[in-house]
Design brief:
Distance between the termini: 25 Å
Helix content: 10-25%
Largest sheet: 4 strands, antiparallel
Structural class: alpha+beta
Strand content: 25-35%
Number of strands: 4
Length: 79
């Protein structure tokens, strides 16, 4: 399923607003958290297929991306 073909809705506590990127492994969406504490804040949510999520290679790649992003402080970097 691609980001462009997925029906937007909720993923856990996040409401998917629109697709941001449709990659071969991950689909990234602009999302809003449903908790009032985060009202008005936007987030990026990455989704993947369950079979890919179980792959240790892909899990490690995502962990490396998250680690790299954790060091960045910039208004354009979503937290």
């Amino acid at each position: 399923m691609t980001a462009s073909s997925m029906k937007l809705g909720f993923m856990g506590a996040y409401q998917l607003v629109r697709p941001l990127h449709d990659g071969t492994t991950w689909q990234t969406y602009l999302a809003q958290h449903t908790h009032p504490q985060y009202q008005g804040e936007l987030f990026a949510v990455k989704l993947t297929q369950p079979t890919i999520a179980l792959s240790s290679v892909h899990v490690r790649a995502l962990q490396e991306q998250l680690f790299a992003l954790s060091w960045l402080e910039h208004p354009a970097v979503l937290r």
